[in-house]
Specification:
The chain is α/β, with parallel strands linked by helices. Helices cover about 30% and strands about 20% of the residues. A nine-stranded mixed β-sheet has the order 6-5-4-3-2-1-15-16-17, covered by helices on one side. Strand 1 and strand 2 form a beta hairpin. The protein is globular, with a radius of gyration of 25 Å. About 45% of the residues are buried.
Length: about 350
């Protein structure tokens, strides 16, 4: 009786183990499928356009949670711009910034470096090489402070060269301009004759740091974004005429804060953005002539502005819902773009707490 009872009990135990094993295998298989599905699911790219009052500071957070900050805004102002950058970084759940790319050394782009690194760790900087514009005291001062920071902190540094890919995972970032040099051959899918060259005047070569800006084209699946820093009209024409070397883009981070030293029809109409984002200040950028070129671009759905432009006045500003900081507002509101590889875009304005959706084309 005891043996028979043990055999029965053993049989039940073995059966239970087998069932449990089958359940575990089934759960493991399901989890494996879920993990595979999650891995294959398209995660968005996030871009924050940070208000630094007419300078530039644009934070990219990749689907792999890498971070790239383009420019650091102004110095001084009690660390205002660095504080705004760090506040947005925290919103993006960042405790450091992987890369800071300095498009050029003018003080509204590079001046904020020392204050930024005092507030948040930066792993690596990217720039175009030595300063060439040595006759402007403010620029010399900003560059010297940056160089001193690199020397004292031993922070890693990458020299941007035309054609190189930035070390980002899952996001292709190609340098198309740096230190006055420009992309030679068309990018994949580009190279068509550019009809808009005929309506764009030729301008003399710019001799400042603007013309040496590091410009980058970002690609995530079908989605394309472009940021050329303050690259000038003459350099744009070389990239776009007679053939368009860059192709079309979905998102144009407006060059030079919307000032008329940049933004030729050959460039803006050639890249034909679906949306454009202007990092202007109330009293810096947003020239009416440039604003009109962007607004009339053939595929444009909306132009977004970080500020109301005093230069633009009543007739050359977008509707208030598309402005982060309306007239007289200096609260530091940013804009947030969420973008998927199929081209779907969502722009969020924290001031209005409203989002605008742009379906995939």
């Amino acid at each position: 009786m005891k043996l028979c009872g043990w055999n029965n009990l053993r049989g039940r135990l073995v059966g239970a183990v087998m069932v449990a094993g089958m359940v575990c295998c089934s759960l493991a298989a399901q989890q494996s499928k879920l993990r595979k599905k999650h891995f294959q699911a398209a995660e968005p790219l996030t871009v924050y356009f940070i208000d630094v009052e007419g300078g530039q500071s644009t934070l990219f957070v990749t689907p792999e949670h890498q971070s790239l900050l383009i420019d650091t805004g102004w110095p001084d102002n009690a660390g205002r711009d660095a504080d705004r950058i760090v506040a947005v970084a925290k919103l993006a759940d960042l405790d450091h910034i992987d890369f800071v790319l300095l498009t050029h050394y003018h003080t509204d782009h590079t001046g904020g470096v020392p204050q930024l690194v005092a507030r948040i760790p930066v792993v690596e900087f990217i720039d175009h090489g030595p300063l060439r514009e040595t006759n402007d005291p403010a620029t010399v001062k900003a560059y010297a402070a940056y160089e001193l920071m690199l020397e004292q902190s031993h922070t890693k540094h990458i020299l941007a060269t035309v054609g190189m890919k930035l070390p980002l995972y899952g996001l292709t970032a190609t340098v198309v301009s740096a230190d006055g040099n420009l992309l030679d051959a068309p990018m994949p899918g580009a190279g068509e004759a550019n009809a808009y060259c005929k309506v764009s005047a030729q301008r003399p070569a710019d001799q400042t740091e603007n013309a040496r800006s590091v410009g980058t084209v970002f690609q995530y699946g079908k989605l394309r974004l472009i940021d050329l820093g303050d690259l000038t009209w003459d350099k744009e024409m070389q990239l776009m005429c007679p053939n368009n070397k860059l192709g079309k883009v979905d998102v144009y981070i407006v060059s030079h804060h919307g000032w008329d030293q940049s933004g030729s029809p050959a460039f803006v109409d050639g890249i034909a953005p679906r949306i454009a984002v202007m990092d202007n200040g109330e009293n810096k950028g947003g020239s009416p002539s440039t604003w009109e070129i962007i607004e009339k671009s053939p595929r444009l759905k909306n132009l977004w502005q970080l500020h109301y432009s005093a230069e633009g006045g009543a007739t050359h500003n977008v509707a208030t819902q598309y402005i982060a900081n309306p007239k007289g507002t200096h609260m530091g509101y940013y804009l947030k773009l969420t973008a998927w590889p199929n081209g779907r875009l969502v722009m969020y304005n924290p001031r209005t707490r409203q989002s605008t959706v742009y379906p995939a084309p």
